Amino acid sequence: MKTIHWMQAAMFAAVMAILGFLPPIPLSFTPVPISFQTIGVMIAGGVLGARLGALSQIIFLLTVAAGAPILAGGRGGLAVFAGPSAGFIVSWIAGAFVVGLLTERAAKLTARRTFAANLLGGVVVLYAIGIPVQALVTGVGLKEVAISSMAFIPGDILKSIAAAALVPKLRTALQAVPSFRRAA
Q1: How many CB atoms lie under 10 A from the CB of residue 151?
Q2: Are the C-beta atoms of 103 and 49 separated by less than 8 Å?
Q3: Whole-prediction pTM
Q4: What CA–CA distance (Å, rounded) separates 76 from 117?
Q5: Per-residue pLDDT of the chain (184 residues; tens, 9 = 90+)
Q6: Which domains does the chain have, with CATH numbers?
Q7: 153: how many CB neighbours lie within 10 A of its CB?
């Protein structure tokens, strides 16, 4: 992998950190807050592709693990990987990979195809990993956690729409820059 690819992944890790400065929205019935960082997962995967999108999330999570308070609400350190949000946070790697894989495979990247990739990778994958981990960590039943997680769906759909509008345009603009062409 070339240095430029590491820089691209690091740049999107920085985007995730910036999104972490937006305050989380706590909900009274779940210990997991609404965060704007999931849109960063969708954008990273869609713009960078599967491999670099996932790498951007790994870099971000390693930075969090090192103690940087860059998760929503100013959280950081190893303790967040043992909390109720742990599964959702770790799932960002797989989510970015799936979004990237689906957008890479699209013959022509449209907002509609990007939206579908965002729903699958940026919502379904995150819930499939996050909900069981939250149930395990909190001791609350899987069904109860799944039901309480339904409150996140409207916001996640809106984030999927916003990322679907941005990604094709960002990718087209960035692909015009020779040093930013995605890794194969």
Answers
A1: 13
A2: yes
A3: 0.94
A4: 29
A5: 899 999 999 999 999 999 999 999 999 998 999 999 999 999 999 999 999 999 999 999 999 999 999 999 999 999 999 999 999 999 999 999 999 999 999 888 999 999 999 999 999 999 999 999 999 999 999 999 999 999 999 999 999 999 999 999 998 898 888 777 655 4
A6: 3-171 (1.10.1760.20)
A7: 11
